[in-house]
Every structure is written in C-alpha cells, then in structure tokens.
C-alpha cells in the first residue's frame, strides 16, 4: 500500500469527485436505510407545511407564500435539511447542499436585517470548501468504502475551557458591533445580542466540524438551533422557524450518534 502524502492537486480532484459528483450525491441521498429515508421525508414535509403559513405581528393566515422570499426560503429550508441530515451521517456530500443553503440563506437574512446571520453564512461559505479539502486529505489513505466518512474526536476539558472563554469575548464583541453597525443598508439589526449569540456559537461549531470534533460540535449546534428558533420567531418567518425546529431535532440525533461512535472507538 502506498503511504506517500497525496499532492494538493490530487486532494482537490478527489474532493470534487466525492462532494460534487452527481452520482455520489444521488447515491448518498437515496441509498440509505429505510428508517433514515422516512425520517428525512418527514422532516421535508414539516418544511413544506411551513410554506403555507404566513404571519405578521397582527395577522396569521394559511396560504402558500409565493413571494420570492417565500420560495427562496423554502429552497433554503429543503437544502438545509438535506445538509444537516447527511452531515449527521458523516457524509462529505453534505457540503454540496450546504453551499446551496448558504447562498440562499445569506439573501434571506440580509432582507431581514439579521446581519449576524449574513456574516456567519459568508464565513460558512468559505469554510465549506476548506472543510471539503480537509476531510478529503485526512481520509484519502483510508479504504475506498470509508474515505467519504468523517473520523470523529472530542474536545478535552482544557479545550472546552478555552472555547468558553473565546466564546464570551466573541459574543460581547459581535453584539456591540451589530448594535451599532449595519450591513450595506442603514437599518440596524433588530436583535443584535440574540443574533450575535447564534452566529458566534455556530462559528465555533463549524470550526469544530472542520477539525472533525464530531460529538463536541453537535452540542454547540443544539444551542445555536434553539437560539435560531427564537430569532426567526421574532422575525416572523415560519419557514425558517420550521427549518430550525427540524435542525434541532437533527442536531440532537447527530450528538447522540457521534457520542456513540466515540464510545465505540
């Protein structure tokens, strides 16, 4: 067996093949256990139902939201569900769905003046490509049947302590920034501290994901998803609320699965 270090070109080529190849995307989307497939269908139905709920501070109606933002929100929700469910199984094609979700979500957040979400997903978009490269480089030497599955590790007590300190500093800084500085437009973020909380938690969760801290990152996603639910309730967007309810369910599953994997290893 050749244990030489693969070249950057070889890693990029393999990464593109694993993450963006249509055959691989379809395979990992449809070739799964029946129970898992039914679970994804159930989550997608929840997301679809939210498309028929429109509410404002003084009005609630049951009708399809056929506005551009409504349709884009549905697209963002569906791609987001596919991303997080496939990610929970440790499949690298989750990045394909993540990129589609990021691009649509950035626009939705911008028109809702949630600038923390905009900055966060711009960061996500860059990190998606870094993550694809990192995961591929780590797993290219594994056997062909497992090279698209992510290895997992967990933060130590010292790691958690450092992370909490960094989080507190980052949250305070981001909150002050959003409180006083708009993004492109002149309208300020209506929920700066909650937006900052969600953004900073997800910032570190994504960093842990790229570094393959499987079970540790899912604890942060649980916290972030709860913050997102509150944030989008306050912003009167039922499609995004439904998406983050689904995301919370999936992040709990992801935490359980990756904690089990760590115990098995």
Automatic annotation (TrEMBL):
This is Nicotinamide mononucleotide transporter. One of its GO terms (cellular component) is plasma membrane. It comes from Philodulcilactobacillus myokoensis. The keyword Transmembrane applies. One of its GO terms (molecular function) is nicotinamide riboside transmembrane transporter activity. Keywords: Cell membrane, Membrane, Transmembrane, Transmembrane helix, Transport. It holds the Pfam family NMN_transporter. Belongs to the nicotinamide ribonucleoside (NR) uptake permease (TC 4.B.1) family.
């Amino acid at each position: 067996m050749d244990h030489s270090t693969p070249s950057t070109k070889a890693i990029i080529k393999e990464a593109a093949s694993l993450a963006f190849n249509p055959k691989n995307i379809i395979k990992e989307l449809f070739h799964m256990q029946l129970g898992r497939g039914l679970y994804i269908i159930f989550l997608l139905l929840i997301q679809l139902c939210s498309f028929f709920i429109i509410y404002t501070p003084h009005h609630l109606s049951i009708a399809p939201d056929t506005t551009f933002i409504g349709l884009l929100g549905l697209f963002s929700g569906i791609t987001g569900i596919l991303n997080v469910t496939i990610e929970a199984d440790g499949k690298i094609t989750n990045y394909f769905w993540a990129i589609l979700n990021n691009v649509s979500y950035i626009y939705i957040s911008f028109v809702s003046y949630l600038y923390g979400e905009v900055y966060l997903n711009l960061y996500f978009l860059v990190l998606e490509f870094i993550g694809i490269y990192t995961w591929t480089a780590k797993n290219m030497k594994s056997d062909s049947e497992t090279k698209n599955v992510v290895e997992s590790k967990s933060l130590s007590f010292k790691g958690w302590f450092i992370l909490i300190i960094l989080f507190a500093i980052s949250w305070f800084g981001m909150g002050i920034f959003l409180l006083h500085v708009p993004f492109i437009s002149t309208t300020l973020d209506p929920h700066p501290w909650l937006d900052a909380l969600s953004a900073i938690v997800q910032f570190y969760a994504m960093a842990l994901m790229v570094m393959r801290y499987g079970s540790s990152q899912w604890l942060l996603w649980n916290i972030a998803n709860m913050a997102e639910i509150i944030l989008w309730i306050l912003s009167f967007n039922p499609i995004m609320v439904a998406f983050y309810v689904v995301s919370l369910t999936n992040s709990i599953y992801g935490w359980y699965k990756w904690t089990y994997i760590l115990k098995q290893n």
